């Protein structure tokens, strides 16, 4: 097969793609979903699962290896001329066994787009073609639709007996190994006019035995809405005692013991097996069937109405078009138009990924088989980065709600409810502190403030989270009463509320004093790298110490903006918090670890179960001075104590201390040790000087760059299991957090390089990931960015990765240079000469100041970054004023907001 045919390729202008023989990859999957929370995964053989949450799976839950070893897939059987059984989905024992034999007589291809999936299969032996299209309607219904189109490609008529077969699991994922058979006894299975329904009586899971409210169904009809003629609702009856789901006796033997509508069968594993009437398919004739898999949770008669609403060819096509239009409109909010159209279309799939993670959380796709749904603390904030760029409406309220998860000790809730702003006290009384958690809310809030100019947001009031854990999880508050709820109370038993600014201060000031023996912030349970979880006593995260330093400086800058723009001279805070603002009272010697611990313990002792509720006012100038003092100390400390040079003359920052209090990085008898994370935040936060950045680039290129895995590895090979550092080093090297090309940190490395003006180096990072990801022969994934790329160059944990948000952020705010500065628009492009098309133009469509913007950069002299600057800006063909600073310019917000007479504002930027 030609190399071109072995890769997927885009077929249109909206991200649609085609892949020949996709079923030769048994680990390939694709997401189907809607914003109502219907979540599906589908493979080229129609394996995968369908669910709305951990406790409501319509199809059996799958992990990645289930895609090839689990027979419980969507299927559609054709008995041809009463003799030969053929799966239109390709999922029969015979077809799979013949796939790589000389007798292979089928060709396949997947066609897919936002968010629909089609598998086309042509069988040369029977001269039959099947086209099976699946999608989830873009409405509030929890339904997956499946259209099966059968075409006779031969010269003689075929007698066809069609049978749809979709197993109905109908319960919690917990029941895969916990009472699997017993929970089938709960099934109450019925046949209705168009299909099979299952309504379990109870739900068995960790919540206890509860009355079940969810129902499941498979319904269907032919192209004109004609009903099936009968049903096989019991799995064992359909497959037979000697059969299998990939060779069911009822379909193979054309058994006529199917049931009519109105039957009830209790206590068995269920299947939506629908027998349709025999047809004679003439040469060139086609026949279409439409199926719907339904999850009904609200007793809203969805099952009863599903067949009528969805199951005809006309209705299916209408809903499919609505679905395509819905996702196109959403993704059109952010578009890139450069010289590389393939990259621009690939980025549309990256644009989709943060939306998928908002819906799926970090679970519910085959690689993401951990957790019980929902998102973690870090995810709440990082996913909002993309939302601020693509869907800014409602983000303010989301951010405000999220701050309710902050504890007064600077840590945060780790169990997050399903409702906005809902945080749950730890059910298992297990304390886990990630020391990086306090940093992310500020990064996201700063982006919001820059995009919106809404500095009043900092003064909004929000509650704090409260449970039994306090003092960074080192103490248990025995006086906390669960019945009081999980909100912090004051001495009058009122829910205490502090400003958003106060929440941010709590998160950063407590960390500043929570240091290890080397005077860097303690690692605690882990930082961003969850695998660094075995250094809780003496470990330190130098790299996130650097991030907190830059946050403190930027917080001071925002306070200066609050003072100058909003005329805020004093800041109201809880009186207890003044302890941490030591320069306002009695300055602490920051070089003394003991002094820092003493002050932090004094703060912890100032409140117990409840806070006083008393507020004090501090001068904004004094607060700014205190924050800058702390940040400046960190920067000097890191530059002096954590900058390394090894025997080979390479230089970089040490990123961590292990549980023995020793530097993790540097020369070692087992090989040079270096982490990418340890370099990212010193670069991003201006801790590293320009000369140090240049040294880091050289060192990373030497020790971490590997073109075989798409760029920069997360770390070098430490060649041992580090029991004093974390479980990550128990993983095989080159996998996940131990030395894979981990997209999230690699993209953040790119972002940091761009921010510091090293655009060529930053571009190389993104280009490497992109080239590896689109090389299907190696990456083995559909378009988009994976969580990581392993030693074989394969992309894993696709779709649900925070790297997508950071890649969008980097492309918009750094590469195309479109960002805010406390509400005003900054244009600071860092495009390479090769990014401009044949018309010397590179264009971005995005949202800013509640306006759709189309920004076109014109580079007629084909200049490279740093060789050009912005000379002229036309707004809808009219020249406008701007403020220039270095290579960037600023446009006042009102110039955009005053433009109310057009749907999209067009800015033409001339570079010279």
UniProtKB/TrEMBL annotation:
Keywords: Glycosyltransferase, Transferase. GO terms for biological process: carbohydrate metabolic process. Signal peptide: none annotated. Coiled coil: none annotated. Pfam families: GH94_b-supersand, Glyco_hydro_94. Residues 103-311 form the Glycosyl hydrolase 94 supersandwich domain. GO terms for molecular function: carbohydrate binding; glycosyltransferase activity. Gene3D superfamilies: 1.50.10.10, Glycoside hydrolase, family 65, N-terminal domain (2.70.98.40). SUPFAM superfamilies: Galactose mutarotase-like, Six-hairpin glycosidases. Residues 326-576, 624-816 form the Glycosyl hydrolase 94 catalytic domain. PANTHER family: CELLOBIONIC ACID PHOSPHORYLASE, CELLOBIONIC ACID PHOSPHORYLASE-RELATED. This is Similar to Cellobiose phosphorylase.
């Amino acid at each position: 097969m030609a190399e071109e045919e072995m890769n997927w390729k885009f077929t249109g202008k909206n991200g649609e793609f085609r892949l020949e023989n996709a079923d030769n990859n048994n680990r390939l999957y694709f997401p189907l979903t809607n914003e109502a929370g219907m979540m599906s995964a589908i493979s080229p053989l129609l394996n995968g699962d369908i669910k709305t949450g951990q406790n409501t799976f319509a199809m059996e839950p799958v992990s990645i290896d289930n895609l090839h070893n689990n027979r419980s897939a969507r299927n559609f059987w054709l008995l041809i001329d009463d003799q030969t059984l053929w799966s239109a989905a390709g999922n029969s024992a015979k077809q799979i066994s013949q796939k790589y034999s000389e007798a292979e007589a089928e060709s396949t291809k997947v066609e897919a787009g936002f968010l629909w999936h089609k598998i086309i299969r042509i069988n040369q032996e029977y001269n039959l073609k099947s086209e099976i299209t699946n999608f989830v309607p873009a409405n509030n219904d929890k339904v997956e639709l499946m259209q099966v189109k059968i075409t006779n490609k031969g010269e003689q008529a075929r007698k066809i007996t069609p049978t749809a077969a979709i197993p109905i699991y109908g319960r919690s994922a917990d029941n895969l190994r916990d009472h699997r058979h017993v929970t089938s006894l709960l099934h109450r299975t019925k046949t209705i006019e168009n299909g099979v329904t299952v309504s379990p009586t109870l739900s068995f899971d960790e919540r206890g035995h509860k009355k079940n409210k969810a129902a499941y169904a498979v319904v269907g009809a032919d192209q004109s809405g004609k009903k099936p003629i009968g049903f096989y609702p019991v799995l064992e009856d359909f497959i037979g005692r000697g059969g299998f789901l990939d060779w069911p006796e009822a379909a193979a033997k054309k058994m006529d013991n199917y049931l009519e509508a109105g039957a009830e069968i209790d206590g068995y594993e269920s299947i939506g097996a629908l027998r349709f009437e025999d047809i004679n398919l003439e040469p060139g004739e086609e026949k279409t069937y439409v199926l719907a898999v339904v999850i009904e949770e609200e007793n809203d008669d969805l099952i009863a109405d599903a067949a009528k609403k969805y199951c005809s060819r006309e209705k299916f096509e209408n809903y499919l078009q609505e679905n395509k239009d819905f996702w196109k409109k959403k993704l059109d909010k952010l578009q890139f138009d450069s010289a590389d159209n393939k990259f621009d279309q690939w980025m549309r799939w990256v644009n989709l990924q943060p939306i998928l993670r908002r819906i799926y959380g970090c679970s519910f796709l085959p690689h993401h088989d951990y957790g019980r749904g929902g998102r973690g603390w870090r995810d709440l904030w990082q996913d909002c980065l993309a939302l601020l760029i693509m869907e800014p409406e409602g983000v303010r309220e989301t951010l405000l709600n999220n701050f309710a998860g902050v504890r007064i000790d600077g840590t945060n809730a780790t169990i997050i409810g399903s409702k906005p702003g809902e945080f749950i006290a730890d059910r298992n009384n297990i304390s886990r502190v990630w020391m990086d958690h306090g940093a992310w809310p500020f990064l996201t809030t700063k982006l919001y403030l820059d995009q919106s100019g809404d500095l009043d947001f900092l003064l909004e009031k929000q509650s704090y989270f409260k449970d039994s854990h306090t003092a960074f999880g080192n103490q248990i508050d025995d006086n906390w009463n669960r019945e009081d709820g999980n909100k912090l109370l004051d001495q009058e038993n009122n829910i205490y509320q502090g400003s958003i600014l106060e929440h941010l201060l709590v998160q950063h000031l407590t960390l500043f004093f929570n240091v290890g023996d080397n005077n860097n912030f303690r690692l605690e349970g882990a930082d961003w790298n969850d695998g660094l979880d075995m250094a809780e006593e003496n470990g330190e995260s130098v790299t996130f110490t650097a991030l907190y330093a830059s946050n403190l400086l930027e917080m001071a800058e925002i306070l200066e903006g609050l003072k100058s723009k909003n005329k805020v001279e004093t800041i109201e805070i809880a009186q207890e918090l003044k302890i941490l603002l030591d320069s306002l009272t009695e300055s602490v010697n920051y070089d003394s670890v003991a002094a820092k611990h003493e002050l932090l313990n004094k703060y912890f002792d100032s409140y117990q179960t409840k806070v006083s509720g008393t507020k004090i006012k501090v001068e904004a100038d004094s607060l700014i001075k205190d924050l800058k003092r702390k940040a400046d100390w960190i920067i000097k400390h890191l530059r002096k104590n954590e900058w390394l040079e090894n025997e080979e003359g390479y230089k970089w920052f040490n990123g961590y201390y292990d549980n023995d209090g020793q530097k993790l990085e540097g020369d070692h008898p087992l090989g040079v040790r270096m982490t990418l994370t340890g370099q990212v935040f010193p670069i991003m936060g201006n801790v590293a000087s320009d000369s140090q950045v240049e040294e880091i680039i050289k060192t990373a290129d030497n020790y971490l760059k590997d073109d075989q895995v798409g760029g920069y590895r997360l770390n070098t090979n430490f060649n041992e299991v580090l029991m004093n550092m974390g479980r990550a080093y128990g993983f095989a090297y080159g996998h996940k957090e131990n030395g894979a090309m981990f997209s999230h940190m690699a993209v953040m490395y790119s972002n940091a390089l761009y921010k510091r003006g090293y655009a060529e180096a930053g571009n190389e990072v993104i280009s490497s990931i992109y080239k590896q990801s689109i090389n299907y022969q190696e990456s083995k994934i559909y378009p988009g960015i994976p969580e990581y790329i392993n030693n074989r160059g394969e992309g894993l944990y696709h779709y649900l990765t925070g790297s997508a948000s950071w890649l969008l952020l980097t492309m918009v705010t750094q590469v195309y240079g479109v960002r805010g500065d406390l509400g005003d628009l900054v244009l600071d492009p860092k495009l390479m000469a090769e990014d401009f098309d044949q018309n010397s133009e590179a264009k971005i469509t995005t949202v800013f100041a509640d306006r759709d913007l189309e920004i076109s950069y014109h580079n007629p002299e084909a200049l490279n970054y740093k060789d050009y600057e912005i000379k002229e800006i036309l707004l809808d063909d009219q020249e406008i004023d701007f403020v220039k600073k270095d290579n960037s310019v600023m446009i006042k917000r009102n110039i955009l907001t005053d433009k109310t007479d057009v749907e999209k504002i067009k800015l033409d930027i001339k570079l010279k």
